[in-house]
Design a protein that fits this description.
The complex is a heterodimer. Helices cover 0% and strands 50% of the residues of chain A. Chain A is an all-beta fold. In chain A, strands 2, 4, 5, 6, 9, 10 and 11 form a 7-stranded mixed beta sheet that branches. Chain A has a 4-stranded antiparallel beta sheet with strand order 1-3-8-7, with no helix packed on it. The model of chain A has no long low-confidence stretch (mean pLDDT 95). Chain B is mostly beta strands. Chain B has strands at residues 3-6, 11-14, 19-21, 23-26, 32-38, 44-50, 56-59, 62-65, 75-77, 86-93, 101-102, 106-111. Classes of the chains: A mainly beta, B mainly beta. The A-B interface holds A 4, 31, 33, 40-45, 48, 50, 56, 58, 90, 92, 94, 96-108 and B 4, 31-32, 34, 36, 41-46, 49, 51, 89, 93-100, 102-105.
Chain lengths: 114, 112
Amino acid sequence: NAGVTQTPKFRVLKTGQSMTLLCAQDMNHEYMYWYRQDPGMGLRLIHYSVGEGTTAKGEVPDGYNVSRLKKQNFLLGLESAAPSQTSVYFCASSIPGQGSSPLHFGNGTRLTVT
Amino acid sequence: GDSVTQMEGPVTLSEEAFLTINCTYTATGYPSLFWYVQYPGEGLQLLLKATKADDKGSNKGFEATYRKETTSFHLEKGSVQVSDSAVYFCALSGGATNKLIFGTGTLLAVQP
């Protein structure tokens, strides 16, 4: 009964380093999303995917890349981390539903870039 | 573009008080509306939703009614508990991809 699992839970990077955040869901959901949460700004969509092998840009995609090679996994990459990318990152998944299907969220990854 | 505005927090209430958190939206078309709750150190959980005008979503004593005429989806609860302390997010979804647009969140603190 895992739902959406994010790894790692915490990470500290130096400016310019790279890393990959992993999201895995066991609900056979078609759609997956990456959001970032910053104080006073709510959650903003970085990238999303509507199926295996597909990705699309969200509201704040710059500085991030994603891949969806398997239906259950959605990877978020930072090629050259910047302090502005210090945030809490949430992955989510959903079934198709014309806007009415709720998203299921993981517990987040807290990233600090120094 | 589409957007969600919700009341600034924090909101501090005593146990058993009445809760209202205001949420208004701007959207083209007919979005679905959601309230999510985030407990400390956790991800967001769906609290309730409404998919068309005049629908009322309800869960765990919380309610919200989709008001198209006032473009609002205010969250209410008649008697809050300490365990309701969390951050509450209003959100809308207007397209086939279920992408959510969130408000900034409202921190609720309930004191015993």
